[in-house]
Amino acid sequence: MLERLNEEIRRRNYVVRIFPNTESCLRLVRALAVETHENWMEAIR
User: Fold this and answer.
1) Long-range contacts, 29-33 (Cβ 8 Å, 24+)
2) What's this model's pTM, rounded to 2 decimal places?
3) In b/e form, how buried is each residue of 18-34, taking b as 16+ CB within 10 angstroms?
4) pLDDT at residue 14 above 80?
5) Which of 6, 41, 17, 3 is nearest to 32 (CA)?
6) At 22, is the pLDDT very low, low, confident or very high (cuts 50, 70, 90)?
7) What is the pLDDT of residues 26-45, one digit of tens each?
8) How far apart are CA 43 and CA 22, in angstroms?
9) What is the mean pLDDT of the chain?
10) Distance CA 11, CA 43 (A)
11) C-alpha angle 37/22/18, rounded to 5°?
């Protein structure tokens, strides 16, 4: 699961290319982690 999350972060990072600050990068990583968690929780049900 972590490998998939890392690949998704790399893919989205490639699209954005340059982040204006550290917070914007962390915001993207957190959003992907939350999305992955929600998908995982839905799959369990």
Assistant:
1) 32/5, 32/8, 33/5
2) 0.72
3) eeeeeeeeeebeeebee
4) yes
5) 6
6) very high
7) 999 999 999 999 998 998 87
8) 32
9) 89
10) 23
11) 95
Q: Which amino acid is at 16?
A: V
Question: Is-contact 5 44, C-beta < 8 A?
Answer: no
- Residue 45 is given by DSSP the state -
Q: Which two tokens stand for residue 40?
A: 């995982």
User: What is the rounded CA–CA span in Å between residue 38 and residue 45?
Assistant: 11
23 is written with which tokens? 């917070």
Average pLDDT over residues 5-32: 90
- Tokens, residue 30: 């957190």
